[in-house]
TrEMBL record, chain A:
Location in the cell: Cell membrane; Membrane
Similarity remark: Belongs to the CPA3 antiporters (TC 2.A.63) subunit D family.
Lineage, uppermost ranks: Bacteria, Bacillati, Bacillota, Bacilli, Bacillales
Stated name of the protein: Monovalent cation/H+ antiporter subunit D
Membrane topology, as annotated: Multi-pass membrane protein
Entry's Gene Ontology cellular component terms: plasma membrane
TrEMBL record, chain B:
Membrane topology: Multi-pass membrane protein
PANTHER family: NA(+)/H(+) ANTIPORTER SUBUNIT B, NA(+)_H(+) ANTIPORTER SUBUNIT B
Swiss-Prot/TrEMBL keywords: Cell membrane, Membrane, Transmembrane, Transmembrane helix
Protein localization: Cell membrane
Annotated transmembrane regions: 12-30, 36-56, 68-90, 112-134
Statement: the UniProt record of this protein carries the keyword Cell membrane: yes
Domain Na+/H+ antiporter MnhB subunit-related protein residues, every copy: 8-131
UniProt record similarity statement: Belongs to the CPA3 antiporters (TC 2.A.63) subunit B family.
GO cellular component term, pick one: plasma membrane
Protein name: Monovalent cation/H+ antiporter subunit B
Pfam families in UniProt: MnhB
InterPro entries referenced in this protein's UniProt entry, alphabetically: CPA3_antiporter_subunitB, MnhB
Length: 492, 141
């Protein structure tokens, strides 16, 4: 029992509720949300140290022992994602201070943002399938409001699509959970893992696994991403950035979790399907990124490529591939937040998202330009930045598993990604400046979170060795479901 | 709004609301061991308020019940969460409940449980949410 496990959910939840109950000035809300996210980050750090010292941490809510109660489980994989989430959400929040506007602040922006983080953290921590559904809903309902908050035309149009597709996938999620319960008689993940292993993963269970794959693919944007480019380009920059950084990652996390913990017995079916979906996702995403001349569209298609690459690591079903997925997942959270924030800033400064009408921004905003350059290189996986190490491991993993085509597609799409972001850099930042000195917007406060994110992506690349011991533990618990099961049932 | 030629509706509402509210509270308390509880009790409570909204206009009801229902929702969830945190203070898992029997004047031997506090929070959250939804839909007209 370790009550710290529930804290990353409780802290943002309580802070958000306090803000709704006692509506105070925006300044107080800003302060409270920074404190809440900071505290969440600190707790995640402590959790990581505890996991490293004494293994996977669990909490049985209300003292009802697993598998009868709801278990919360923090292994190193969750712990690292929690810490990354806290840091990135804090930086996006600071960016929002300068850009979100009074109107949205007055309409519960900060509480909703914290509820979103509550749902994300909950999804990372829960050890129960139904509870995972609940946490997804907490996250999704907050995101419904955040995406439509402000009520501009494009936001309303896109939020209708977004809400419909997510309601459909939530419905399928419930159906899948019902099937799973009917087939196995439990929803506790550890217990599920045991029962599926005992009974053998027969045809019905594999079919259920694929239904889950469809559900989470809809959320993660793996192959079923047709809703994503529109939805992610509608809301304001800070919100779009946190969506791009976190929401798809929760879907990815769920896929990795259930296909390493529960449905890992038939990799030649399930993991092959994941591999094919990953390949198609990478190709289509990269084609989209190359084809468009609109900054928002290029960036949203890059989100899709990232999802495909992470899933390629899982498809290889090997320690190396998963290590790559792990590194790339963390890298992707940071870099997507960074590149969306920069892209959004460029659009605000230039007043348009059409690349053909922007040029020479680097002369007026040198810092912004060079940060974009670093982010672009990191996105494409140029050493020594953080995207490199993940890509190497993933490619190695797919080659080892014999999926040469998958690794090759990963490498080819990396080049296409590099082209697509360099297109933004060369057209938008290079060239003759067309902005007058008077038109120059204020970027001082905005630059701070961007600079930290840039430092993070450099640091994660250069210091990859430093977090290797943590990543190793994370992969160990993913590759060996017995560790997870024993921790939940309090054996061993 | 409609013309106020609805004497029968109003007379019935005055009596019915009282009955519904009583029933809601009954449902709420029976929830500990029998079917019922915070969620359904809260819904019944909200239905009584909705009847008032339908019978009188929203402004009149708001004047008589000057509560911000969004805040009621938040306070309700807060109460539930803090009941859960009670467990943490006593070094038990989050959401641990406790109960005991007490001799109370008038009631005699009574079971008091922290789960009731949690349920009060749930009921408030349900009431707040239901009324917020209904009143924001009605604002469209």
């Amino acid at each position: 029992m370790n009550n710290l496990v529930i804290m990353p959910i409780l802290i943002p939840l309580i802070t958000g509720l306090l803000m709704v109950a006692f509506r105070r000035k925006a300044v107080v809300q800003r302060f409270l949300s920074v404190v809440a996210l900071g505290a969440t980050g600190a707790v995640s750090l402590v959790l990581m140290v505890q996991i490293k010292d004494s293994g996977i941490q669990t909490l049985q809510l209300g003292g009802w022992e697993a598998p009868f109660g709801v278990s919360m489980v923090a292994d190193m994989f969750s712990g690292m994602l929690l810490l990354t989430t806290s840091i990135v959400s804090l930086l996006c929040l600071v960016f929002a201070f300068y850009s979100i506007g009074k109107e949205r602040e007055a309409h519960y922006f900060y509480p909703l943002y914290l509820f979103l983080i509550t749902g994300v953290n909950g999804s990372f921590l829960t050890g129960d399938m139904f509870n995972l559904f609940v946490c997804f809903e907490v996250m999704l309902i907050s995101s419904y409001v955040l995406i439509s908050l402000g009520g501009t035309g494009i936001q309303l149009r896109e939020s209708i699509k977004y809400v419909l597709i997510n309601i459909l996938s939530s419905f399928l999620f419930l159906v899948a959970i019902a099937y799973l319960y009917a087939a196995t008689g439990t929803l506790n993940m550890a217990h599920l893992s045991e029962r599926v292993a005992e009974a053998g993963q027969n045809g019905i269970l594999t079919a259920i696994a694929i239904l889950f794959l469809i559900v989470f693919s809809l959320k993660a944007g793996l192959f079923l991403f047709f809703w994503l480019p529109g939805s992610y380009s509608a809301p304001p920059t800070a919100i779009a950035a946190i969506f791009a950084a976190l929401l798809t990652k929760v879907g990815i996390y769920s896929i990795i979790r259930i296909f390493t913990l529960i449905f890992y017995h038939e990799p030649h079916i399930t993991h092959l399907i994941i591999g094919i979906m990953a390949a198609v996702t990478m190709l289509l995403g990269a084609i989209g990124a190359v084809a468009y001349w609109d900054i928002k569209k290029i960036l949203t298609y890059n989100v899709i490529v990232g999802v495909g690459l992470i899933m390629a690591g899982l498809a290889s079903n090997s320690t190396v591939g998963l290590t790559g997925s792990m590194y790339y997942l963390i890298h992707d959270i940071i870099i997507k937040a960074l590149i969306f924030l920069i892209g959004g800033t460029v659009i605000t400064l230039a007043g348009t998202s059409k690349l053909k009408y922007i040029s020479g921004l680097i002369q007026t905003y040198p810092f912004l330009g060079w940060m974009f350059f670093i982010a672009a290189l990191s996105l494409a996986g140029i050493p020594p930045l953080s995207g490199f190490i993940g890509k190497v491991f993933i490619t190695e993993g797919t080659f080892e598993a014999g999926f040469l085509w998958l690794g090759a597609i990963g490498l080819i799409t990396s080049l296409m990604v590099l082209y697509s972001v360099m297109k933004i850099f060369l057209n938008g930042f290079w060239g003759d400046s067309y902005l007058d000195e008077e038109k120059k917007g204020e970027v001082k406060g905005i630059l701070f979170p961007l600079a930290i994110l840039t430092l993070l992506t450099i640091g994660l690349g250069v210091g990859a060795e430093g977090i290797y011991s943590y990543a190793e533990l994370a992969i160990e618990s993913l590759m060996n479901p017995l560790l997870y099961i024993e921790a939940v049932f309090g054996r061993g | 709004m409609k013309e106020p030629n609805d004497v029968i509706l109003r007379s019935v509402t005055k009596v019915a609301v009282l009955i519904i509210l009583t029933f809601a509270i009954n449902l709420f308390f029976s929830g500990h061991h029998n079917p019922g509880g915070g969620f359904i009790g809260g819904l019944a409570f909200a239905s009584a308020l909705t009847l008032l909204f339908l019978c009188y206009d929203i402004e009149t009801v708001r004047e008589n019940i000057p509560v911000d229902f969004k805040a009621v929702t938040a306070v309700g969830v807060l109460i539930s969460v803090f009941t859960g945190i009670g467990g943490i203070i006593f070094d038990r898992p989050f959401l641990t409940q406790a109960f005991d029997y007490f001799q109370l004047p008038l009631f005699g031997k009574t079971e008091l449980a922290t789960a009731v506090l949690f349920d009060i929070g749930v009921a408030m959250a349900v009431i707040g949410t239901a009324i917020t939804i209904i009143s924001s839909i009605s604002e469209d007209r």
